[in-house]
């Protein structure tokens, strides 16, 4: 299943029409060998094999382990030499000292790329680790092979049946994630997918001994499946090239960058993680700005930004209409939105009058933010809240509308679930019949009541499936929408 | 059930030994009449009655509604006059125009207080609303009654069987919440309780027509059941008195204040919400600081701060030892902690050597932040991660230890649940055998897989029941722990 509708993203691209063919081929191998495949289902050396089966990889899958005859139900080979041809791609899960032998054996087989899941190379900071990594790359190059890694999770390409994590979605989408960290890729892809963000590809590239951030960024710039690029980067080897490539990428599509190692302790962690030089934070700040990319401050903010860029048409300005629950909720929403940089104009009289005609008894609550408490108790909130949203969306006074229907308040007991469901469905209808960018707040489903959890997850999903950007709090919505608007205003 | 162990809170109080007797009596009525009780179980006029039963209120519960004979299984009275004596407390759910009659009828019955859930009075901004509210207060005073509200949810006093919300906990705790907004009280009490924060009392006081923030704050200052005070305030009528009362409160216990209406749009919302004057944000900033209270920036931050003040011994300094998952996770943790104001000293050699003795193969990962990826794959993470936490907790190099065991990473499949459970249990053991302040990160349970959600909720609960402050992200932990440390350093 592919997910391509992305309202906020230009459909034409100024980048080169053809993706980098070398990387395109690497990401679409005809067959894959997992060397160092394990018989232990808890080990990644087993899971890599299992994943190719589960994600429906169509080509040959060849586990290699001299001590096993079968792994994950597939025939196991005792050596890479015995694997059927063609062999395009190798995943190495062998320990670092066995990498030279693997590289030697793979020579002349026509292998295009080796993904070194193998770690404990240059990131160890030892002479031996650095030497082994350098030799592995040299041997690969000699045999015409490119290297991804070492010390990384490698490639997630759901459209081609490749994954490195069982809880990743099988569905593709328009976002590419380029991550120097495997752990961050694991967290980000899973968590973002719960908010309706799906991926064209995600690549964890670790020590970047051969193929590096600039190579993959060039590829994503020209990849027609990718319409938003997200990067987690700890350090680059060639800053000048990276600036050029990043600038080209940002001219073609939105590029969101999270830079790891901003602080002293962070830079120390970067050195032992991927043997990278973190570089000065000020230089990174100006590099990202100069390139026209968008900087994220952390993992959570990065996910929030992607939700905005993926699901929201860029609003034409900063004027926001807000609907939220409870008097304190409206005050809080107003404070949080203005602190984030958005503007809350007063509700125009024309909107107040439209509302008065429909709900003569409670129109006094019509303001910006719009306090839904009064209109909920007056008559069914599942009708009145969407009506308020519609009137705001149809008014020229607002560039964007954020609705917090306060579902948790509707959820005092399981009896209210149908009402909450109708409310979300009616809001979806309003959004679909309007051209105004809109977002919705649904508070997190980490609650102990099973019915509350289930309904929350169901409504979240229903909302983003219908194209609604969903946020757990007003603050996170406001900050990421502000980023989206500023990015488009700056261009 | 009462929950009184609060490590971070002084057990002796410098405040007056006796709580304000008038408010103490109001909060512990012998009987309660709900006037305007409804037969519709979805209406708050019904729910108030139901709640008194469900929360085990021991005194008389008297629904009043001339059109009903029974409400929520209790005998219903046609007028307040017919209710048995003594009648200490009235909850008014009648429409605003009926309040004068209620006040007249209640005269001379010995009623101590009337909680006006009734809204649409002064907050309407109309002459009529303001007049009706003024007259209601005058009539109450004349009859020797105090007023809570109008336009508020009233009192939550779980130890005395009084609540205004079905999903509030029946268990009491050491935190008092004073909220000018009913909606914020509803959200805060429920959400905080999921993180192990329970309440002595929560009071939603709305328009503050009679009893106001200063009265309740005086009460909480001297209330022996309250050890932390949290306030959501939109505006005060007597700023001089409030500063004095807030200063006294902050001398006795930690007081966390969220000020609603910081921005222009927020102040506008405040006026229509509780008819308050929001006041200048700068004045509030200096008032809170001068009083020695702690300012929260939003609802989420306020909850995070309460978790720190409730569950953490104040660390003696800013030096934090961090354990987190994945190389990128350690980089991110380091950046986020230092950006929050904490310091991450390098791991002392002595700790590295202790670790080397136990895990000679993977001690290279021993750093600060401590990258748990290597030690998890080396041998069972349920043993090695707690060992790393123990060594950090026992080192003089750190004032506080934050552990992100990356449970989500352990949770790739349901098969790993027992391991995740053992990991959390072992971390709890380390915390309980150490005097070092510690916190744990458990990512939110708003996930679609039922087993993952259930185990996450179970482990969150297990952790805070054992006294562990729990945060959904490293950033939220770091920022609230920083607030706790700075507050104690400033004193």
Question: What's a concise summary of this model?
Answer:
The first copy, chain A, has 491 residues and is α/β, with parallel strands linked by helices. Chain A has 18 helices and 18 strands. Chain A has a six-stranded mixed β-sheet, sandwiched between helices. A five-stranded parallel β-sheet of chain A has the order 2-1-5-6-7, with helices on both faces.
Low-confidence stretches of chain A: 8-17
Large-scale geometry of chain A: elongated
Distance between the termini of chain A: 33 Å
- Greatest chain-chain interface? A-B, 88 and 88 residues
Main sheet: strands, sense, barrel of chain A: 6 strands, mixed
- Structural class of chain A, please? alpha/beta
Radius of gyration of chain A: 25 Å
What is the number of E strands of chain A? 18
Strand order of the largest sheet of chain A: 8-10-9-11-12-13
- Proportion of beta-strand residues of chain A: 5-15%
Oligomer description = homodimer
What would the average pLDDT of chain A be, to the nearest integer? 92
State the helicity of chain A in percent bands.
40-55%
Mind explaining what this structure looks like?
- The structure is a homodimer of 491-residue chains.
- Chain A has 491 residues and is α/β, with parallel strands linked by helices.
- Chain A has 18 helices and 18 strands.
- The first copy, chain A, has a six-stranded mixed beta sheet, with helices on both faces. Chain A has a five-stranded parallel beta sheet with strand order 2-1-5-6-7, with helices on both faces.
- In chain A, helix 16 (417-432) packs parallel to helix 17 (450-465).
- Chain A is elongated, with a radius of gyration of 25 Å.
- The model of chain A is unreliable at 8-17 (pLDDT under 50).
- At the A-B interface, helix 5, helix 8, helix 11 and helix 17 of A face helix 5, helix 8, helix 11 and helix 17 of B.
């Amino acid at each position: 299943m592919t997910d391509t509708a992305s309202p906020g993203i230009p459909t034409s691209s100024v980048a080169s029409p053809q993706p980098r063919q070398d990387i395109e081929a690497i990401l679409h191998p005809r067959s894959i060998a997992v060397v160092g495949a394990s018989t232990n289902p808890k080990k990644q050396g087993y899971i890599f094999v299992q994943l190719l089966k589960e994600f429906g990889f169509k080509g040959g899958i060849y586990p290699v382990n001299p001590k096993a005859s079968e792994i994950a139900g597939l025939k196991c080979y005792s050596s890479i030499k015995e694997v059927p041809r063609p062999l395009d791609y190798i995943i190495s899960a062998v320990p670092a000292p066995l990498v030279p032998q693997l590289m030697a054996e793979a020579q002349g087989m026509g292998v295009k790329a080796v993904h070194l899941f193998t770690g404990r190379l240059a990131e160890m900071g030892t002479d031996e680790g650095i030497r082994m990594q350098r030799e592995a790359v040299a041997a690969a190059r000699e045999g015409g092979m490119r290297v991804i890694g070492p010390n990384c999770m490698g490639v997630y390409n759901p459209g081609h049946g490749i994954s490195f994590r069982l809880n990743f979605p099988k569905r593709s989408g328009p976002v590419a994630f380029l991550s120097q960290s495997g752990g961050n890729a694991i967290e980000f892809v899973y968590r973002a997918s719960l908010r309706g963000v799906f991926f064209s590809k995600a690549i964890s590239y670790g020590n970047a001994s051969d193929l590096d951030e600039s190579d993959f960024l060039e590829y994503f710039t020209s990849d027609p499946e990718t319409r938003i690029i997200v990067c987690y980067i700890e350090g680059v080897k060639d800053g000048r090239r990276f600036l050029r490539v990043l600038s080209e990428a940002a001219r073609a599509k939105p590029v969101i960058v999270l830079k790891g190692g901003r602080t002293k302790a962070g830079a120390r962690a970067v050195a032992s993680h991927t043997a990278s030089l973190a570089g000065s934070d000020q230089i990174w700040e100006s590099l990202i700005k100069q390139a026209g990319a968008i900087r994220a401050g952390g993992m959570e903010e990065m996910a929030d930004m992607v939700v905005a860029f993926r699901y929201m048409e860029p609003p034409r300005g900063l004027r926001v209409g807000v609907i939220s629950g409870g008097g304190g909720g409206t005050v809080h929403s107003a404070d949080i939105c203005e602190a984030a940089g958005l503007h809350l104009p007063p509700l125009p009289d024309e909107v107040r009058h439209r509302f008065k005609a429909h709900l003569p008894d409670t129109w006094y609550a019509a303001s910006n933010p719009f306090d839904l408490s009064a209109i909920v108790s007056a008559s069914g909130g599942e009708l009145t809240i969407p009506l308020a949203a519609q009137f705001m969306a149809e008014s020229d006074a607002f560039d964007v509308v954020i609705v917090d229907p306060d579902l948790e308040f509707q959820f005092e007991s399981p009896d209210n679930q149908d009402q909450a469901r109708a409310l979300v469905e009616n809001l979806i209808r309003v959004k679909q019949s309007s051209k105004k960018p809109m977002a919705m707040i649904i508070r997190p489903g980490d609650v102990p009541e099973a019915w509350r959890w289930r309904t929350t997850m169901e409504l979240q999903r229903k909302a983003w499936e219908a194209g609604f950007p969903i946020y757990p709090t007003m603050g996170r919505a406001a900050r990421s929408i502000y980023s989206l608007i500023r990015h488009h205003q700056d261009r």
